[in-house]
Amino acid sequence: xxxxxxxxxxxxxxxxxAGSFSETESNNTIASxxxxxxxxxxxxxxxxxxxxxxxxxxxxxxxxxDSASLSVFAAFSPAAGDGILQIVTAGGDVIAxxxxxxxxxxxxxxxxxxAAGTYYIGFSGFGDAFSNSVDTDELFDGIGHxxxxxxxxxxxxxxxxxxxxxxxxxxxxxxxxxxxx
Length: 181
Ligand SMILES: [Ca+2]
Ligand SMILES: [Ca+2]
Ligand SMILES: [Ca+2]
What we know:
The protein is an alpha+beta fold. About 20% of the residues lie in helices and about 40% in strands.
């Protein structure tokens, strides 16, 4: 699970445009999330540089213009930090949570077939929300942890052409054929 996540990031970073982003506080709510960009076919990646302070929570928003076949989120820290990660829909529903699947006590997540739309990444310290927060939809609020460390958050998307686009191309070809008659 762990090595698969890192390999997936390496594959995505190696094949598509990569960017970087520096966190801007305050980003402690979904409403004040930092926007880390829009992603379309064939995908892309962004490396976020950020810091988690006492009772801090960091929210980052992104938009998929096309559905992603694989989305990867992984956090790294030079310190012995204990981070936790949530992926949340625009409506505030928690669709993924992880605590320690990454390096050390850092979180890592992979999501297959994420539909086009806007989502939010929440990053906080261990103790903020319960590990069953996918069920309870308890959003990170920074309360309950005393973690304090710098970290990087690697986010990558592998996007294949949407079936609708392929159908449109086929329809366009059919119409062109008819016009030639
Ligand atoms: Ca922060
Ligand atoms: Ca914050
Ligand atoms: Ca953790």
